[in-house]
């Protein structure tokens, strides 16, 4: 891959015959390798148009219909479809914008009562919008290269993010707009890197109004902007800067929420955004600390039942284990977890990192703290969804080339995190797609980075850790083999292993109770549980690693 | 590329200059493909620059002596038509990476920063005193590195104003390298990146895995006849064959309910269907229940069917391509081999038909390719078996039969009377046995039906002369001319069969005659040893008349040597007799002539010539005529299947896969310095294609002509195929000529103009010598001290004739500017 130096300042060297061939790359200063990656990714993503799509596809189509056919005042009240609006206003405005061309392409797309419409036109349209809006991500990543300290490494990282299997699985197959929104997040981080902190804060406020899940990251932003933008290095508060930032953020929220506040719909809006009616774990346990705790509870229950030890069992917990798939997680042996507990633990961990950030409000420190904030929320949050792992993996990627320790953390978290996304696509046809793609991505990203950053473990404990980590990574192919083969061996032929499609921020509908109490349901749950627990081990370890690295950093 | 970039941040060119200069000599030889050697394992590469400060001292010292230049690679001057006005430009513009505003230099806290960089950089700072100029910085910078950045960029500007001549030369070299890299396409850039990042050994796996991934993604789409009862399409046909083979006795296979997709492919297809059916039946018996499963379209059965295609493709086509690239391109660099592999594995038409439309062409093509590879290695018997299997899988590979048959006859002639006869008998027996084995279950002891009918059933099914001249719209001569001349009205069916047969024979005759005749002309005469030894050729070359006597003398010797060679050297010489170089074009001629002129051709059959195109194209450099033609035919081939793909609902895949392939191979028809006839033709054809697609999108055809667009498609595609056919004949003739096939007296003048390279190389070599040269080529490859690319180009140009003539002119490094125009003319001619 080459570089194409096509900045305007070079024009005079270029004779007509050596004119840069592609007007696009010529005018945009895109090197041919970057252009290659753009083309390649677009081609691959377009090829995935006919692939499996989750109910999120219908969710977003329904939102197109809602925003197109209803007035603003009814957006958050409509219940024609079960997939009601539960994203913040900016995203809804965004859907409104998308619904306009949709109407011209096929009016049936935006027909509110046309539920579960899945004609080729709507598939192509919605999938195309994902690809096009992802250009925000592409642009942000491209700008990351341009100002980078080490452009060659940054280019690998940027490419790795743009071609991230997480985005491929969640956006281009499962269907969501994460690429677009992470594009805004990265843009905001980029602004922080380039010293334009006001813009950074502005973009983050915008992002929050696109999808409120980014609140997980808000503490790091708050501390960083407060310390490094609103205060002088000596600690004196700079009121002018503070006011400008506050005004910017307030302005964004006014634009977003204002109309709904005026209509007095704020409570309804908030009740849609924050439905506190879910269990500790999602249907498929997100691979976090609670997955390990839940698994430990299941194991203990087995042990207690078998040994007949005299332990007080929580009977609803026993029932919960046999239900397998869905519903509130109630522990049988261990004490139950309440939302408050998770909240306190999350805050406590975040505080540790935020204090560090307060003391050292540099860009690198900020990115690490940002990652750790997201990571803490993912680890200990209430009802975390497995897709939230992207909140960790994306900012963590920016740190991948900091040192070998960082790289190792990135490697473990990425492999475990991407693998934990696999159950999102449970159809056999997509198994090949996700496995091959993710392995190739890992190869192309990890090998060069490893080569650049490799360090021999300095002492015996590190050698041991290194060995264990390698062993852990080597377990993934085996796990995948097990997950693939198990349903066949269990005799359930080739029917999908899950009846429930985990989707968006929605709980799965309660499955048929007869099926879920049967043994086969438990057997179907086994691969999922194993995946979750195995990935959780790696992610918890990576969390500890990153935390220690950050806190030990001078 | 990443590595490359590190070294050329804004002030990179200058800073790096010492190293660049030192490595120039090796660089210039390694040429476009080699890229910067910075990361390679060679001695003077600064791999360790990050770690050891002592190294920096060495480099510093080097930089002092760096004004010693390696010769500027001339081929760059030939390749590029850029003017050199920059030499005179007073205010020089920024270095190549002015767009980058931060260099590794500006990262004092970064671990990759080495003292070396500082030192060599500061050395230059001293060398070029300060001055200033302004540069635009497209992107703002991290505030953290503000001061450093300022430092480095300002000094960068200073440097720029005081570029020495050598620095300018360096700059220009960089530019040329960029240009070459740009020209090389995505595939080659990726290969280079892989090499540079130490992932050489992963390339093969990645190529296979990536191509499988693409194929599988295409498989996610719809297939032919999806949701169109009662007959469905090719998918249902293949599935139905699996169904009937596992439930019926063999004798019933070719008779069962012929109206509903009766089996009409040769036995190997039936056997493979049986195998797939058996395995699928174990998984889920409802997929292949007799009669009950007709039109089954469950996702699981689709998944299974799709995976059988992928499995068979991976088991047959992929290894065949692998062997082909490793053996046929044995003398080329690994990168070229891998690039050829990517080209063949991502070939859009095959992917679209096999994985989209649904067929198993990969098996047939893979077997043919295997046969070809065996022939080029002299493993004729194996090749025969592979080709019989290919024929036994799909009768379409009969399109290759004239070329392959005449190649084998030519080889028998080449071996001389005694060996030739022996060889002929062995070939004949092997072929017969292979056919016998293939049809064994249909023959009397195993079959309840008596002899002639038991074999006639399958055969009449396979060759449906009772069908029409063509079905649907196919881009061949008959369908295209049918617009004007209503053949079916004028000539009866019997007459049409004869007419098409006759035309087909005329069509492939040039290839056949070339092979047989050159086999005869180059036959082993003097028995002085190896057919590959140039000395023996020299002496045997004396007079045509003497040859007969000579080769009677020591035929055994020859034969032994030949076989010995087979065993000993795994290289070029073994089994590769002179006429092998004629085979690719003969295959192309023959298959295209069948496609264009024979009876009952389907549009999908273009895949058959396409394989020959791939063989011709393999290893051709991006600016060679062979490449141009091959890509054009390929793209037009895909385009000619557009009506079919549109019907199958594969429009999206059609666009994506085609564009991806063109991007990977680095085809850029609209960006070129040299305009050749093919280029003009290609641009015209692409414009036509674009217009047709847009028209089709915008207006529906008038009710009077519902087939307007397919017919226009045919009218656009057919001329290209006809021209390609003529081109392949021409190439065949040239290659034949190169072997000295066209008599002796007239060649001297024409050949010297035809082969500028050989003239260049051999000085006053004339007519007769041309042919010696072609024999010599294998030897000279070993002796010419160049890198793989040029050697191979050299050989190919001699062997294949015009194919990559321009490539030779470029890479041999001997061509002068004067000749540059010569080869331009030559390319235009071809």
TrEMBL record, chain A:
Catalytic activity: an alpha-D-Glc-(1->3)-alpha-D-Man-(1->2)-alpha-D-Man-(1->2)-alpha-D-Man-(1->3)-[alpha-D-Man-(1->2)-alpha-D-Man-(1->3)-[alpha-D-Man-(1->2)-alpha-D-Man-(1->6)]-alpha-D-Man-(1->6)]-beta-D-Man-(1->4)-beta-D-GlcNAc-(1->4)-alpha-D-GlcNAc-diphospho-di-trans,poly-cis-dolichol + a di-trans,poly-cis-dolichyl beta-D-glucosyl phosphate = an alpha-D-Glc-(1->3)-alpha-D-Glc-(1->3)-alpha-D-Man-(1->2)-alpha-D-Man-(1->2)-alpha-D-Man-(1->3)-[alpha-D-Man-(1->2)-alpha-D-Man-(1->3)-[alpha-D-Man-(1->2)-alpha-D-Man-(1->6)]-alpha-D-Man-(1->6)]-beta-D-Man-(1->4)-beta-D-GlcNAc-(1->4)-alpha-D-GlcNAc-diphospho-di-trans,poly-cis-dolichol + a di-trans,poly-cis-dolichyl phosphate + H(+)
An MF annotation (GO) of this entry: dolichyl pyrophosphate Glc1Man9GlcNAc2 alpha-1,3-glucosyltransferase activity
Location, primary (coarse class): endoplasmic reticulum
Pathway field: Protein modification; protein glycosylation
Alphabetical keyword list: Endoplasmic reticulum, Glycosyltransferase, Membrane, Transferase, Transmembrane, Transmembrane helix
Enzyme Commission (EC) number: 2.4.1.-
Bilayer topology: Multi-pass membrane protein
Keyword Calcium set for record: no
Region (Disordered): 1-21
GO BP terms, alphabetized: protein N-linked glycosylation
Pfam families to which the protein is assigned, alphabetical: Alg6_Alg8 (PF03155)
Cellular component GO terms, alphabetical: endoplasmic reticulum membrane
Family under the similarity heading: Belongs to the ALG6/ALG8 glucosyltransferase family.
Record-given protein name: Alpha-1,3-glucosyltransferase
Source species of the chain: Jaapia argillacea MUCL 33604
Classification lineage: Eukaryota, Fungi, Dikarya, Basidiomycota, Agaricomycotina
TrEMBL record, chain B:
Low complexity bias (residue ranges): 23-40, 88-106, 746-759
Name of the top EC class for this enzyme: transferase
Organism of origin: Jaapia argillacea MUCL 33604
Pathway listed: Protein modification; protein glycosylation
Keywords annotated in UniProt: Endoplasmic reticulum, Glycosyltransferase, Membrane, Transferase, Transmembrane, Transmembrane helix
Subcellular location: Endoplasmic reticulum membrane
Single GO MF descriptor: dolichyl pyrophosphate Man9GlcNAc2 alpha-1,3-glucosyltransferase activity
Bias-annotated ranges (Basic and acidic residues): 548-568
Region named Disordered: 1-157, 526-575, 746-768
One Pfam family this sequence matches: Alg6_Alg8
Recorded family membership: Belongs to the ALG6/ALG8 glucosyltransferase family.
Membrane-protein topology: Multi-pass membrane protein
Keyword Transport listed: no
Predominant location: endoplasmic reticulum
CC annotations in GO: endoplasmic reticulum membrane
The protein's name: Alpha-1,3-glucosyltransferase
Compositional bias annotation for Polar residues: 53-63
UniProt-listed Enzyme Commission number(s): 2.4.1.-
Spans traversing the lipid bilayer: 310-331, 399-417, 424-443, 495-516, 606-631, 651-670, 677-699, 711-729
């Amino acid at each position: 891959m080459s570089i194409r130096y096509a900045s305007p300042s070079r024009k005079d060297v270029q004779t007509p015959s050596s004119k840069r061939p592609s007007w696009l790359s010529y005018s945009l200063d895109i090197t041919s390798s970057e252009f290659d990656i753009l083309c390649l990714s677009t081609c691959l993503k377009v090829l995935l148009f006919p692939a499996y799509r989750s109910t999120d596809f219908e969710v977003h189509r329904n939102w197109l219909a809602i925003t197109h056919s209803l007035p603003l005042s009814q957006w958050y009240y409509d219940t024609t479809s079960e997939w009601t609006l539960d994203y913040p206003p900016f995203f809804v405005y965004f859907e409104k914008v998308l619904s306009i061309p949709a109407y011209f392409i096929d009016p049936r797309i935006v027909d509110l009562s046309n539920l579960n419409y899945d004609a080729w036109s709507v598939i192509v349209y919605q999938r195309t919008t994902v690809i096009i809006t992802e250009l925000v991500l592409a642009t942000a990543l491209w700008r990351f290269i341009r100002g980078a300290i080490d452009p060659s490494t940054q280019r690998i990282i940027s490419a790795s993010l743009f071609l991230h299997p997480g985005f491929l699985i969640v956006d281009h197959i499962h269907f969501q707009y994460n690429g677009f929104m992470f594009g805004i997040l990265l843009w905001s981080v980029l602004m922080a890197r380039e010293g334009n902190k006001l813009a950074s804060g502005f973009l983050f406020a915008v992002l929050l109004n696109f999808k409120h899940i980014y609140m997980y990251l808000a503490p790091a932003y708050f501390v960083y902007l407060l310390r490094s933008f609103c205060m002088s290095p000596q600690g004196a508060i700079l009121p002018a800067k503070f006011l400008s930032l506050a005004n910017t953020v307030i302005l964004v929220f006014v634009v977003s929420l204002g109309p709904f506040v005026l209509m007095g719909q704020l409570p309804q809006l908030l009740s849609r955004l924050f439905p506190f009616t879910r269990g500790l774990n999602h249907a498929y346990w997100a691979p976090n600390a609670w997955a390990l705790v839940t698994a430990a509870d299941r194991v203990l229950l087995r042990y207690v039942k078998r040994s007949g030890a005299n332990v007080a069992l929580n009977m609803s917990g026993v029932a919960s284990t046999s239900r397998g798939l869905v519903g509130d997680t109630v522990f049988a042996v261990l004490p139950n977890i309440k939302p408050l507990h998770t909240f306190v633990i999350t805050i406590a961990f975040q505080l540790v990192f935020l204090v560090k950030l307060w003391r050292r409000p540099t860009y690198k420190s900020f990115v690490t703290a940002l990652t750790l904030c997201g990571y803490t929320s993912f680890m200990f949050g209430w009802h975390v969804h497995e897709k939230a792992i992207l909140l960790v993996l994306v900012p963590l990627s920016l740190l991948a080339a900091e040192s070998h320790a960082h790289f190792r953390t990135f490697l473990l978290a990425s492999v475990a995190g991407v693998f934990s996304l696999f159950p999102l696509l449970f159809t056999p046809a997509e198994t090949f797609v996700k496995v091959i793609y993710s392995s190739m991505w890992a190869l192309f990203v990890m090998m060069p980075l490893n080569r650049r950053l490799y360090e021999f473990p300095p002492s015996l404990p590190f050698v041991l850790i290194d060995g264990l980590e390698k062993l852990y990574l080597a377990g993934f192919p085996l796990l995948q083999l097990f997950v693939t083969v198990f349903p066949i061996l269990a005799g359930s032929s080739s029917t999908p292993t899950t009846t429930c499609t985990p989707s968006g921020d929605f709980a799965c509908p309660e499955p048929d109770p007869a099926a879920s109490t049967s043994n086969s349901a438990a057997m179907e749950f086994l691969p999922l549980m194993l995946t979750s627990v195995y990935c959780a081990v790696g992610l918890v370890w990576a969390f500890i690693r990153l935390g220690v690295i950050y806190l030990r950093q001078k | 590329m990443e590595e490359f970039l590190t070294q050329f941040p804004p002030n990179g060119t200058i800073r790096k200059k010492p190293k660049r200069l030192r490595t120039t000599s090796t660089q210039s030889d390694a040429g476009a493909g080699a890229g910067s050697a910075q990361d390679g394992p060679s001695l003077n590469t600064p791999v360790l620059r990050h770690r050891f400060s002592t190294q920096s001292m060495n480099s510093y010292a080097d930089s002092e002596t760096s004004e010693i230049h390696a010769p500027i690679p001339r081929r760059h001057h030939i390749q590029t038509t850029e003017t050199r006005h920059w030499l005179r430009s007073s205010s020089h513009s920024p270095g190549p990476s002015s767009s980058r505003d931060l260099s590794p230099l500006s990262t004092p806290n970064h671990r990759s920063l080495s003292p070396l960089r500082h030192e060599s950089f500061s050395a230059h700072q001293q060398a070029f005193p300060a001055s200033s100029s302004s540069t635009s910085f497209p992107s703002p910078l991290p505030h953290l590195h503000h001061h450093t950045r300022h430092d480095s960029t300002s000094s960068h500007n200073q440097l720029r104003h005081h570029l020495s001549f050598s620095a300018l030369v360096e700059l220009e070299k960089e530019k040329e390298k960029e240009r070459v890299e740009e020209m090389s396409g995505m595939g080659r850039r990726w290969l280079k990146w892989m090499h540079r990042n130490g992932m050489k050994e992963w390339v093969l796996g990645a190529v296979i895995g990536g191509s499988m991934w693409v194929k599988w993604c295409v498989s996610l789409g719809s297939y032919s006849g999806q949701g169109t009862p009662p007959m469905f399409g090719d998918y249902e046909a293949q599935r139905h064959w699996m169904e009937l083979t596992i439930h019926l006795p063999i004798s019933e296979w070719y008779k069962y309910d012929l109206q509903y997709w009766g089996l009409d492919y040769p036995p190997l297809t039936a056997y493979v269907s049986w195998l797939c059916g058996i395995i699928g039946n174990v998984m889920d018996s409802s997929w292949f229940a007799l009669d009950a499963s007709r039109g089954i379209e469950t996702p699981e059965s689709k998944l299974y069917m799709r995976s059988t295609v992928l499995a068979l493709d991976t088991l047959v086509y992929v290894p065949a391509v692998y062997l082909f690239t490793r053996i046929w391109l044995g003398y080329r660099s690994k990168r070229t081999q891998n690039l050829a592999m990517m080209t063949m594995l991502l070939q859009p038409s095959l992917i679209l038909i096999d994985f989209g439309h649904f067929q198993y062409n990969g098996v047939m093509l893979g077997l043919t390719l295997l046969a070809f590879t065996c022939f080029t290695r002299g493993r004729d018997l194996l090749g025969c078996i592979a080709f019989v299997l290919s024929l036994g899988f799909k009768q379409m590979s009969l399109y290759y039969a004239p070329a392959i048959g005449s190649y084998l006859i030519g080889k028998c002639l080449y071996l001389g009377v005694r060996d030739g006869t022996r060889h002929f008998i062995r070939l004949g027996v092997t072929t017969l046995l292979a056919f016998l084995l293939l049809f064994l279950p249909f023959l009397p002891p195993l079959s309840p039906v008596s002899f002639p009918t038991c074999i006639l059933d399958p055969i009449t099914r396979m060759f449906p002369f009772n069908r029409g001249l063509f079905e649907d719209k196919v881009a061949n001569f008959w369908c295209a001319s049918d617009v004007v001349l209503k053949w079916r009205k004028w000539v009866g069916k019997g007459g049409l069969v004869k007419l098409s047969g006759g035309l087909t024979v005329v069509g492939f005759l040039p290839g056949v005659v070339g092979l047989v005749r050159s086999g005869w002309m180059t036959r082993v005469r003097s028995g002085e040893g190896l057919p590959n030894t140039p000395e023996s050729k020299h002496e045997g070359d004396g007079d045509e008349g003497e040859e007969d006597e000579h080769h009677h003398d020591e035929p055994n010797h020859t034969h032994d040597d030949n076989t010995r060679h087979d065993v000993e050297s795994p290289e070029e010489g073994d089994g590769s007799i002179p006429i092998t170089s004629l085979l690719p074009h003969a295959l192309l001629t023959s298959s295209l002539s069948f496609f264009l002129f024979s009876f009952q051709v389907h549009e999908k059959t273009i895949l058959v010539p396409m394989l020959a195109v791939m063989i011709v194209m393999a290893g051709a450099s991006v600016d060679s005529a062979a490449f141009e033609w091959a890509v054009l035919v390929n793209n037009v081939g895909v385009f000619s299947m557009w009506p079919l793909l549109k019907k199958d609902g594969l429009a999206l895949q059609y666009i994506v896969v085609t564009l991806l392939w063109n991007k990977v191979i680095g085809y850029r028809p609209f960006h070129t310095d040299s305009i050749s006839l093919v280029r003009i033709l290609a641009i015209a054809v692409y414009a036509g294609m674009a217009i047709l697609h847009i028209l089709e999108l915008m207006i529906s055809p008038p009710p009077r002509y519902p087939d307007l667009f397919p017919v226009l498609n045919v009218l656009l595609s057919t001329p290209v195929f006809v021209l390609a056919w003529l081109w392949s004949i021409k190439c065949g003739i040239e290659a034949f000529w190169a072997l000295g096939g066209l008599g002796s007296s007239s060649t001297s003048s024409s050949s010297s103009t035809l082969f500028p390279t050989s003239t260049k190389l051999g000085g006053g070599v004339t007519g007769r010598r041309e042919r010696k040269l072609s024999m010599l080529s294998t030897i000279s490859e070993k002796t010419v001290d160049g890198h793989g690319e040029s050697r191979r180009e050299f050989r190919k140009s001699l062997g294949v004739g015009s194919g990559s003539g321009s490539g030779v002119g470029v890479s041999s490094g001997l061509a002068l500017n004067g000749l540059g125009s010569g080869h331009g003319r030559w390319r235009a001619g071809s």
